[in-house]
């Protein structure tokens, strides 16, 4: 179950990247840098990746029950 470990670790790092990009975009908005409109779209890629990894981690226990009752925490 190495995939679970990598996805969880990637989810954590993506969360930190998302927070950093939101802070940068908020700082840019607070200082009035309106000509850099691409900066406001910067948090979207990590947000979408977080969505996919979060849905995977949410569904993982249900998939393990469906496959035969093996717990998601076993084997890690």
Q: How many angstroms does the end-to-end distance come to? A: 6 Å
Range of strand content? under 5%
Q: Which residues sit in consecutive blocks of at least 5 with pLDDT less than 50?
A: none
Query: What structural class do the secondary elements suggest?
Result: mainly alpha
Got a strand count? 0
* Share in helix: over 70%
Radius of gyration: 17 Å
General shape: elongated
Please summarize the sheet with the most strands. none
- Mean of residue pLDDT values: 84
Helix and strand element order: HH
- The number of helical runs is 2
Tell me what the structure shows.
It is a single chain. The protein has 76 residues and is an all-alpha fold. Helix content is 71%, strand content 0%. The protein is built from two helices and no strands. It has helices at residues 2-30, 44-68. Helix 1 (2-30) runs antiparallel to helix 2. It is elongated, with a radius of gyration of 17 Å. The mean pLDDT is 84.
